[in-house]
Amino acid sequence: MKQGNIKIVCQNKKVRYDYQILEVFEAGMVLLGTEVKSLRQGRANLKDSYARIKDGELFLMHAHISPYTHAYYDNHEPERVRKLLAHKREIKRLQGKTQEKGLTLVPLKIYFKDGKAKVELALVRGKRIYDKRESLKRKTEQRELEKAIKDRR
Question: So where are the chain's domains?
Fold first, then answer.
């Protein structure tokens, strides 16, 4: 299978620090024309956004897509609820998993794949404070190790 042409619009980098990622999957987005134009300009923010399942459908909540600058009167609401497109069996499986204690759906990034807007969602579990310290410590040790190897050369 051929890898499509991917252009990343925005990423939620804080997710990897705050959450333990269990599973990642892709979903399409139902957008208005001005939202697509604004995304092409790279004007989006995923901070504090999440996905929720209502009545067997998947929705993206609190994702900020800035209003399109050249639109006159027919602009979109920046933080409106956006429907996500996924297979029914995938949604049912995710619904079962999110009902488990402590699991949430969080968007990792928004991107264009073959001209279509997609969102990468992750099934996550929140990290405790000591987990965050541990991952920060591991990251620092890895950086120092790479620096030592580089200095030896």
Answer: 7-126
Q: Can you read off the two tokens belonging to residue 47?
A: 């901070």
Against a cut of 0.85, is the pTM above it?
Answer: no
CB 148 within 8 A of CB 141: no
Burial zone of 76 (CB within 10 Å; 0-12 exposed, 13-18 middle, 19+ buried): buried
Name the maximum alpha-carbon separation found in the chain: 62
Encoded tokens for 41: 């300009």
6, 18, 55, 129 from 62: Cα distances, Å: 24, 18, 19, 25
- Facing residues of 21 across strands? 124
Q: How far apart are CA 23 and CA 30, in angstroms?
A: 23
pLDDT one-digit tens code per residue, 35-89: 888 888 888 888 888 888 988 898 988 988 888 877 777 777 777 888 999 899 9
Asked if 84 and 119 touch (Cβ cutoff 8 Å), the reply is yes
Query: Where is 124: in which H helix or E strand?
Result: strand 116-126
Residue 107 and residue 120 in contact, taking contact as beta carbons nearer than 8 Å: yes
Which of the two residues, 74 and 6, has the higher pLDDT score? 6
Return the CATH architecture of domain 7-126: Beta Barrel (2.40)
